[in-house]
Amino acid sequence: MAQKRKGKKFLFIFVLVFVVLLGYFLSSLSIFEKNKPEIFVNDVIYSNLKDPISVRVKDNESGLKSIKITLKKDSNDSGIVLIDQKIDQKNDITLEFNLPKLAYKEKIKSYIMEIEAYDASFWNFFTGNYIQKSVFIDIDDINPEVKVLSNSYQIEQGGVASVVFKAEDKNLDQVYIQTDKGKIFKAIPYIKEGYYASLIAWNAKDDYFRAYIIATDKAGNSTKERIRYYFVNRKYRVSNINLSDKFLDTKINFLASANMSKDDASKLSRTQKFKFVNETLRFANENLIYKITSEVPEESVKDFNLNLFLPLRNAMKVADFADHRSYFYNGEFISSGYHMGLDLASTAFAPIISSNPGKVVFAEDNGIYGLNIIIYHGFGVYSLYGHCSSKNVDVNENVKKQDVIAKTGTSGLALGDHLHFEVLVQGVQTRPEQWQDKIWLKNNIYKVLEDGKKIILSEK
Fold first, then answer.
1. Residue 224 near residue 214, CB atoms below 8 Å
2. Less packed terminus of the chain by CB within 10 Å, N or C?
3. Angle, CA 181 vertex, CA 179 and CA 184 arms, to 5°
4. Is the distance from CB of 245 to CB of 326 less than 8 angstroms?
5. Quick check: 160 and 154 in contact, CB under 8 A?
6. What is the layout of strands, in order, in the sheet containing 53-58?
């Protein structure tokens, strides 16, 4: 009897070990894998009932077997089945579908979407691994509301204008200003939530200009509101310049050799070196400036005020803003470009003054600009100083009004000692003369901001 019990016990242990080993063996096979599929979709979806909803389901091991998507009005609703699809063991699938249109006068503001998926594993008694996810869908088919509160009366080619506006939507996502050329200006929150202000610049190289406020919500609804400006085209100077051998052999040869390998420079002719400096190097230098000055770090703005930009005492203008220059050598056209700053000269190594407080964001050599300093003054406004011979400031240093930041010189693409001066708005070079005009600043910026502020504060 005892021996019989011992035999049964041995048999039980053997069967148990066999089952455990069999389970371990089967679980090691991919067809018996135990990992659930993955569902990639946000926990909350905002829908305008026009754009399709996208759901991605993935299973890299045994592959997918089936996906079911049910739409419910609430947790008590049995719902309607949007998708009930058998999958032929695909590892990754993305389903796109539209929600049913609301019936006339039906006021459904939200849905619950349930996503269920099985993989093709033999786990769970051959039923496969199962995953379920519930997603809240917010129905929003209303466009954001945009209202211009105040704006400049006019904008000049190469100049600046301002705008204050309101943008409202329960699911507001993005608010910005875009020109007809695709340039985007950041709209900065102003005074109170839901209100914005911005400076907008018209690139002097463009003959035509329009600007629009764009507001989008999380459901994909969008509003595009044109800012009504009176447009003033300007005739900028056109210059024909003959290149001398001395200029090509000294300044141009130096800049080309300093910004490419000696072997490459030795293979180029005089005029090829000039094309490299005036086109390739200039493009790289201006692109760096654009990248730096396009940043607008403020999260909001309440006040903005600037002193006139007068960087050089007793200075004389020696070159114009937006001068379109064509270069010739021995009567043959070589290259062209725009001079997008104001050149000022007084005495050699004259002190350069920061007319406004700000933060230094760049202070180093920049190709044709030579020793180049850029200062940020807030509200998207930057001032730039080129061809300096020495500097008194470094990056991240804060400067005060009337600080001497550098001295004039001949660094970069400069023959005589002078200052190349620019004022940029969110990466766009603008007419420096506007920033040296007290009446222009008052009418085009300060009054617009103040008028907008009064309206904002009067609204509840």
1. yes
2. C
3. 45
4. no
5. no
6. 38-40, 53-58, 92-97
